Amino acid sequence: MIALDYSGSLSFSNLAQTRLLACKHPIYNLAMSIIEINHLSKSYRVYQKQEGVWASIRGLFRREYREVQAVRDISLQVEPGEFVAFLGPNGAGKTTTLKLLSGVINPDSGDCRVMGHVPWERENEYRRRFALVMGQKNQLWWDLPAAESFRLNQHIYAVPLDEFDRTRDELCEMLDVTHLLGQPVRELSLGERMKMELIAALLHSPEVLFLDEPTIGLDVVAQHKIQQFLKAYQEERKNTIVLTSHYMKDIQALCQRVVIIAQGSIFHDGSLDDIIDRFSGDKIVTLQIGGPDEVFQGLRKLPNVLEVEPPRIKFRIGRDDVARTLSDILSTYAVEDIVVEDPPIEEVIAKVFTDAQGGQVDDESHPDIAGVS
């Protein structure tokens, strides 16, 4: 249902109706990709300070800089309702890309449209339709209760009071933080603060949500709670979410599509299963063998044995050799149980990062890590 408030502006009972109106916008149609990136590039000049007093004095008169290419000619499309993960090693360009998409910084070259808007033009209409949450930066007032920051956001985004109350109560209930609304933010735990940050970002029902490591530093319980919340929220609202995270459980639980960024460029774009199929040539086989321990002597000669704990043995084997090797083992030994699985996803992703960087070590001085913008 569409209601008219006293200011003459339209308010909507749910996000789906908001999108229905958005499709009539002159510069954006839902038939288009909601995010379109074309040959986007961004570089930084980074000051190189030398060690020592004399070097510091020389630096007053002649500074040395180096050019860091944070984003290199990236082109990408994201469809409405997608939940996309940006993966990459430290300094890969993930955070810089999110800053470009949210209009925090300007690119050196290239073009980008999010819901038909150019982000770095910073139009108010665009800023009302997206949200950015950065796990290492706060948007809530430190000494005030979260409820006060929520009320401020209500006025900033001109959210009708009844809609604000309904959305706030629903989000607080989903994240189980209603009892913490009156507590100063500085007294909350890290996990509780992160939940409040998410609520603050979602009060105006953004159509696009950018999440930069939202679970960084959280314990397992808090991570799982936020994963469940984001999954349920996105399934219900069908909004578009772009997530960066170093926790593979976040990616596995939430994202259907993974974009791997390395050295500022897109290295791979597909599902997690695609990544495993493309970059993992091995399988992990676990066998439970019946009979005395002596039967393990022959199995110990298998290549790439990972673990021997009679009656179990675990080894690594190439994908193409699984059927032949298991057939030989089954014809020789009394096998009671077989488990064939992919290597741990963290191991596969680490190999992908190494391949993407050509074996280079992460550059910790990259602006993505140093926070340069």
Descriptive account of the structure:
With 373 residues, this protein is an alpha/beta fold. It has helices at 15-22, 53-61, 94-101, 124-127, 146-156, 161-175, 190-202, 220-237, 248-254, 272-279, 296-299, 322-332, 345-356, 367-370, and strands at 2-4, 10-12, 35-47, 65-78, 83-87, 109-114, 130-134, 208-212, 240-244, 257-262, 265-270, 282-289, 305-309, 312-318, 335-341. It has a 6-stranded mixed β-sheet, sandwiched between helices. A hairpin with a 5-residue loop joins β1 and β2 (10-12). α6 (161-175) packs antiparallel against α7. It is globular and about 75 Å long. The model is unreliable at 1-28 and 359-373 (pLDDT under 50).
Total strand segments:
15
Tell me the strand percentage band: 25-35%
Helical content band: 25-40%
Task: Give the CA-CA distance, first to last residue.
Answer: 42 Å
Low confidence ranges: 1-28, 359-373
The overall pLDDT average reads 83
Radius of gyration: 25 Å
Structural class: alpha/beta
Q: Could you give the order of strands across the largest sheet?
A: 7-8-9-5-10-11
Question: Major sheet, described briefly?
Answer: 6 strands, mixed
Molecular shape: globular
Number of helices: 14
Q: How are helices and strands ordered from N to C? A: EEHEHEEHEHEHHHEHEHEEHEHEEHEHH
